[in-house]
């Protein structure tokens, strides 16, 4: 995990604004938007693995079939069946699921503190245009998040949204000025207990008019930034009571200034949200040039992990009753009781990488084979020999959350991983 973060945090943190006692023990997570790293060239399309899956899903009354999303004939398409199978699951719309319970608790906070002035959207389609996902929110043409390595493309102009910010501009244009958008978002990412290729975000957006800040005597940006922090600190207290948290300065293309909120969880700082004062250009595009606004994007799994004490992000996708039966509609204070932890099984794999090798591609190959049986994937050693060849050694941790894995099963998974990395990633096993 740490290895992956090193790459994707090159630029991000300028300073820790509000430090609590453990302030210097930092641990950061890969996150595509708070990154200014540049685009890497598209990779050749990988052959899809067949899954026994449903052929169509219904999202907000629109039917989406597998062929709409997984296209073997389009070289830009990089959506595997394992991802298609997550479309339409809508965990955030299930009142007894931790993600749905959390969404409703956040709704309650906004309803009671802002007298129901925030409009709520939770069934907007996750299939959006590159204009919505990137251009409308000022993501630069060379930003890393646009690459095929980071984002799932349906075709060259259509993606699975990688953040709920994809809906900001459209809702503003339609005249909405205070809203919450909840939805599933998709990212090619690393594998560990706090990252999953599908997760849920809630976007918040709030537009102010001159009369709002004039009275305060403050400059509009400062007014919005202070209001934003007050709102989110209040939300954190509403959800957690007292919890150790800190603000970190960061960068997003769509906000300035920009911040992240981190919560101390399981002896580390966990980034739970990004936010900031909206770039004026975005407001101007919707005819709101005399206004100022703030926006935030919450990572719902991360907040739910802290709230319900859920140790691994894969739990959200299990249908094991020992998990699902522990949560009930409106029950916020519940702490998850783990039903025995099954033993992990470690397997190492070493290979000479090629120029086109990326860790996200490797993660996707492993997930394609092992699904949720893979808990973590870590680079444990790397070196370059005299001929200039670079070797990577990864440790794969296999563990089921539901049962003990047999040696045979794990050996079989590992042998498939060895076969497929050679075929798909153009690497040479050592
Ligand atoms: C964004 O997605 C911005 N759109 C947030 C934003 C909105 C900023 C509006 C400003 C204004 P970021 O990439 O940092 O930012 O993701 C936001 C949150 O999603 C993170 O803080 C984290 O809680 C969660 N998150 C990111 N990647 C993953 C992942 N792979 N698995 C689970 N949660 C994740
Ligand atoms: Mg982030």
Number of strands: 16
The amount of beta strand, in percent, is 25-35%
**What is the topology, as strand order, of the major beta sheet?**
3-7-8-12-11-10-9
Tertiary shape: globular
How much helical structure, as a percent, in the residues? 25-40%
The secondary structure category is alpha+beta
First and last CA, distance = 23 Å
Q: Could you list the spans in which at least 5 consecutive residues all have pLDDT below 50?
A: 1-31, 46-51
- SS summary, helix count: 13
Spell out the helices and strands N to C.
HEEHHHEEHEEHEEHHEEEHEHHEHEEHE
What would you note in describing this structure?
Its main location: mitochondrion. Its EC number is 6.1.1.20. GO terms for molecular function: ATP binding; phenylalanine-tRNA ligase activity; tRNA binding. Keywords: Aminoacyl-tRNA synthetase, ATP-binding, Ligase, Mitochondrion, Nucleotide-binding, Protein biosynthesis, Transit peptide. The protein is of the alpha+beta class. The protein is built from 13 helices and 16 strands. The strands form 4 sheets. The chain has a 7-stranded mixed β-sheet. A 4-stranded antiparallel β-sheet has the order 14-15-13-16. Strands 4-6-5 form a 3-stranded antiparallel β-sheet. Helix 4 packs across helix 10 (300-308) and helix 12 crosses helix 13.
């Amino acid at each position: 995990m740490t290895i992956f973060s090193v790459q994707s945090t090159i630029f991000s943190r300028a300073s820790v604004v509000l430090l609590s006692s453990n302030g210097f023990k930092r641990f950061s997570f890969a996150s595509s938007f708070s990154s200014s790293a540049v685009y890497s060239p598209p990779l050749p399309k990988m052959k899809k693995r067949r899954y026994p899956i449903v052929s169509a899903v219904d999202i907000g009354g629109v039917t989406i079939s597998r062929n709409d999303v997984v296209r073997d004939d389009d070289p830009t398409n990089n959506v595997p069946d394992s991802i298609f199978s997550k479309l339409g699951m809508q965990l955030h719309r299930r009142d007894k699921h931790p993600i749905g319970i959390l969404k409703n608790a956040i709704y309650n906070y906004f309803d009671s503190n802002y007298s129901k002035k925030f409009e709520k959207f939770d069934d907007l389609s996750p299939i959006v245009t590159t204009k919505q996902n990137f251009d409308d929110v000022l993501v630069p043409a060379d930003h890393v998040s646009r690459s095929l390595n980071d984002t799932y493309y349906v075709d060259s102009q259509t993606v699975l949204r990688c953040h709920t910010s994809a809906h900001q501009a459209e809702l503003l244009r339609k005249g909405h000025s205070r809203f919450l958008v909840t939805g599933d978002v998709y990212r090619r990412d690393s594998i560990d207990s706090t990252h999953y290729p599908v997760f849920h975000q809630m976007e918040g957006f709030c537009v102010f008019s001159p009369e709002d800040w004039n009275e305060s005597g403050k400059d509009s940006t400062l007014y919005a930034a202070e209001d934003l922090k007050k709102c989110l600190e209040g939300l954190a207290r509403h959800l957690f009571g007292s919890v150790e948290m800190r603000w970190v300065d960061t960068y997003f293309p769509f906000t300035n200034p920009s911040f992240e909120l981190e919560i101390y969880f399981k002896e580390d700082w966990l980034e739970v949200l990004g936010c900031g004062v909206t770039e004026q250009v975005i407001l101007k595009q919707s005819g709101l040039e005399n206004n100022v606004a703030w926006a935030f994007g919450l990572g719902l799994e991360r907040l739910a992990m802290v709230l319900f004490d859920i140790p691994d992000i894969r739990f959200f996708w299990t249908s094991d009753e020992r998990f699902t039966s522990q949560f009930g509609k409106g029950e916020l204070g519940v702490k998850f009781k783990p039903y025995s932890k099954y033993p992990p099984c470690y397997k190492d794999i070493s290979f000479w990488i090629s120029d086109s090798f990326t860790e996200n591609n490797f993660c996707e190959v492993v997930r394609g084979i092992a699904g949720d049986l893979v808990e973590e994937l870590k680079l444990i050693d790397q070196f370059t020999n005299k001929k200039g060849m670079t070797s990577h050694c990864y440790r794969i941790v296999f563990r089921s959350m539901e049962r003990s894995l047999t040696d045979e099963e794990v050996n079989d998974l590992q042998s498939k991983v060895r076969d497929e990395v050679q075929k798909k990633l153009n690497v040479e096993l050592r």
